[in-house]
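Forwarding the complex inputs:
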Amino acid sequence: MAIEHKTRTQLVAEAIREKILTGEIKAGDPLRQAALAAELNVSRIPVREALLQLEAEGLVNFEAHKGATATELSASQIDEIFDLRALLEAELLSHSIDGLTDQDLIDAELILTELESAMDAGDTHLATGDLNSRFHGKLYSRAQRPQTRELVDMYSKNSERYVRMHILLAGGLTTAPEEHRTLLNHCRAKDTKKACDFLKKHILGAKNDIKKLLLKIEDEKR
Amino acid sequence: MAIEHKTRTQLVAEAIREKILTGEIKAGDPLRQAALAAELNVSRIPVREALLQLEAEGLVNFEAHKGATATELSASQIDEIFDLRALLEAELLSHSIDGLTDQDLIDAELILTELESAMDAGDTHLATGDLNSRFHGKLYSRAQRPQTRELVDMYSKNSERYVRMHILLAGGLTTAPEEHRTLLNHCRAKDTKKACDFLKKHILGAKNDIKKLLLKIEDEKR
DNA sequence: ACATTGCATTTAGCATACATTATACTCAAG
DNA sequence: CTTGAGTATAATGTATGCTAAATGCAATGT
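Prediction (whole assembly, four chains):
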């Protein structure tokens, strides 16, 4: 295994992405190239290139001569993104479900139990989001649709900070864990239609929770 | 109206994009930063940044320390991209169709007649692709789904060179113009289901044509 | 008091120069 | 003849510094 040589640009991109996802950089905040460069001990070039990458990921807005800002997602944008996720993830699942092996299903269940015990332990942040996306990822793993997968990953990354915010403010995921169990069972039964329909509902349900929260926050600003 | 100041990066990106779409740069070709910089009379910095943008658009692969190449789409990737397009464009249309005004429909029809006369005149290249995407764009114009729209635009840009290739080699679009008429009629009737189903078939039909061509080319390489 | 123009400051865009990595080639050893 | 280490070369990655655009502020005139 060759040691991998990460470029400064990649490291900087990771650093900034993390800052945005954790909320250290809030939506709308300007991202000054010089400040970031100084903070991370690099020149402005890798910072610029990292910002360009993050723009492609939808995490920052980059305006010529004006600078970059962390993207601010309005309630209507959240709406659209989750609709897209429902559409794309159902598509992925439909292509993956028949290829899922028994081992895959066991793995998925293991992740689920881990997720449940993490929630019982009151682990509201980090772990739950990660485990959640690992569970979904497992179910999509046999889809052989790399581009679709990439899209889905991008959008879930982008929604992550809002999910985290929601977990923080609402004190946990409101979407019950048994929803995941139900989904898993549909997959076990290889019932494509039921599984995909349920998945869509599952995602759209999460959307509504987050949207409510966001609308409340948008309101409070006035 | 303020004059718009295009940055060198943007200009370079447009130049390279055009080279790729017209086929001047063929799939798989390496893109040397220094050569492009010299050719376009800029330094390597804007070239690098342009290449990063093009990577986000899926036109270029950028590998650290190895350089950039024009992306090479295999038959299976074409397959996936067109599936995605069918899914996303149907989604867009479903959100747009009820909002389409009479004027929109007239505009769409005008574009169609223009397209038809261009094809009659034997204009195999440029115009047809552009008019085609303008027609589709018109139908989606009331969707109020900016992110979805952006995705769709990205993917049609990315497929464009293959469509052009197909037009060149097969001597024209095989998808008959009356398909567009049929689609337009469904939209006039505000028959969402029929319109979307037909649109999907329309896109998947184009997919199969192009895939056949691509498989033949891939075969001939052996 | 208000708008407007011009200047100063800040910040982004870009060119040049240097550092680092990957690759092709040479040459020696097995 | 093949293989492998080492070196040369060419390409990419990054730092530094200069240029140009945008923003804020002050001064001037109405």
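The longest helix of chain B spans residues 192-220.
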